[in-house]
TrEMBL record:
InterPro entries: Glutathione-S-Trfase_C-like, Glutathione-S-Trfase_C_sf, Glutathione_S-Trfase, Glutathione_S-Trfase_N, GST_alpha, GST_C, GST_superfamily, Thioredoxin-like_sf. It comes from the Eukaryota. Residues 85-209 form the GST C-terminal domain. GO terms for biological process: glutathione metabolic process. Residues 3-83 form the GST N-terminal domain. PROSITE patterns: GST_CTER, GST_NTER. Its EC number is 2.5.1.18. One of its GO terms (molecular function) is glutathione transferase activity. Belongs to the GST superfamily. Alpha family. It holds the Pfam family GST_N. Keywords: Transferase. This is glutathione transferase.
Length: 222
């Protein structure tokens, strides 16, 4: 092994995309293995590589880690993106959990039945503009700093940036009422590691299409 973290998942966003974002933001190169068949997935389970029979799987520092939250906590701690003390870590956790709730809606959206898509899109827009983005707009305004926690780049900033771009793909003007978040997005986009990740040809995955949905259903079908 090259020493680079090795990510096993499908060739698409899903639950691995926040992991890719976090590693990229930390400036860490990684390798990827893509699951394309049910047999590949079943072999991972049979070989005992998936503790709870679920991917993502990230091999890092001699560990075979599953569960997205645990993987990301480890990466954030390892690369100094997890605050300076317990209080900052608690804030980061709180913000990350909130953003994860919004991202869960986006994650499930491509799998909505056609007659529910419009309703689900409205739900994403409503939650983003009324419940989640106002929180971060207020936090940034109140402390007047560039970052969400401790005036230092953290996992929470990475997660928020990913969420902003994911919602904008579906609701392009979603930030129109959030001037602080507009500034935040511009600053984040210009951070060297994130700027690199946003360029064509980076490991960032495109929005899920019909082929991705089909592959997910094929690999994980019961």
């Amino acid at each position: 092994m090259s020493g680079k973290p090795r990510l096993t998942y499908l060739n698409g966003r899903g639950r691995m995309e926040p992991v890719r974002w976090l590693l990229a933001a930390a400036g860490v190169e990684f390798e990827e293995v893509y699951l394309e068949t049910k047999e590949q997935y079943e072999k991972l389970i049979k070989d005992g590589l998936l503790l709870f029979q679920q991917v993502p799987l990230v091999e890092i520092d001699g560990m075979k880690m599953v569960q997205t939250r645990a993987i990301m906590s480890y990466i954030a701690g390892k690369y100094n993106l997890y605050g300076k003390d317990l209080k900052e870590r608690a804030l980061i956790d709180m913000y990350v959990e909130g953003i994860s709730d919004l991202m869960q809606m986006i994650l499930m959206f491509p799998f909505s039945p056609p007659d529910s898509k419009e309703k689900n899109l409205e739900s994403i827009k409503e939650r983003a503009t009324n419940r989640y983005f106002p929180v971060f707009e207020k936090v940034l305004k109140q402390h007047g700093q560039d970052f969400l926690v401790g005036n230092k780049f953290s996992w929470a900033d990475v997660q928020l940036m990913e969420a902003i771009l994911a919602v904008e793909e579906k609701v392009p003007d979603v930030l129109s009422g959030f001037p602080q978040l507009q500034v935040f997005k511009t600053k984040m986009s210009n951070m060297p590691t994130i700027k690199k990740f946003l360029q064509p040809g980076s490991p960032r995955k495109p929005p899920p299409d019909a082929h991705y949905v089909e592959t997910v259903l094929k690999v994980f079908k019961k």
